[in-house]
Amino acid sequence: MRNLKLTIAYDGCEFHGWQVQPERDTVQGLLAEAVERITGERTLPQGSGRTDAGVHAEAQVANLHVKSPIPCRGLQIALNDNLPQSIRVCSVEEVGPEFHARKSAVAKTYRYRIYRGDVCSPFVARYVYHHPYPLDEIAMSEATGLVAGEHDFTSFAAVDPERGRDNGEVSNVRTIFSSTLSRDGGELVYMVRGSGFLHHMVRNLVGTFLLVGKGTLKPADVHRIIEARSRSANPGATAPASGLCLISVEY
Q1: What is the DSSP string of 69-106?
Q2: Among 9, 19, 42, 112, which has the minimal tally of Cβ within 10 Å of its Cβ?
Q3: Whether residues 71 and 157 fall in one domain
Q4: Which residue of the set 11, 25, 52, 81 is catalytic?
Q5: Is residue 51 part of a domain?
Q6: Dihedrals φ, ψ of 170, to 5°?
Q7: Is 52 one of the catalytic residues?
Q8: Over the stretch 73-89, which tens digit does the pLDDT of each residue have?
Q9: Has this prediction a pTM greater than 0.90?
């Protein structure tokens, strides 16, 4: 069996997330169907993590096992011919049998875009959260830096049974290597790089930072929320999926 590593980009607006679901279009499901059409083999590609409905990816990583001798470049072309244009296979490469897209990952980077202008172009709206209202961007920037380091992020996880869903762990402890907010023209761009992320974690972080920007919370409140280790202790709403994109996965 060959172990193939795929790097995939997709517009999440058209899908019910990454993970295969009955009678719903998902990235994993459509990719598996395309592989079966091309190779005749049933296999379920294993992703680096499960992006939610509406979340995008510039470089999601998956691996799959096939017997087919089709060269990597040929398989890439065939997959893109069999997938909707909103999913593109950027590369296919053969890797060792020990490689696993999720278990082998050591870091991931996500980006969240907040559009600040009064009018958001329809050509941008699918990929940002439009928030034209007043925000203290300096306070928000201060707050983003406070989540760096190793913490139990239960206060920023979705209240559901999918604990540790990003890397198969039961613990909600994660390490954030960097967490920054910057201005890019008419947008606020939040970049976060970490060892892994819980369900809704990045979107809940953004929702909390927005409350800091509105003055409802102070930057120092972020420490209190982390230490509470309870989602109910965090008044921040889950930010919309449209602004979130998986940028890279490191191995």
Answers
A1: ---HHHHHHHHHHHS-TTEEEEEEEEE-TT--TTTT--
A2: 42
A3: no
A4: 52
A5: yes
A6: -85, -30
A7: yes
A8: 999 999 999 999 999 99
A9: yes
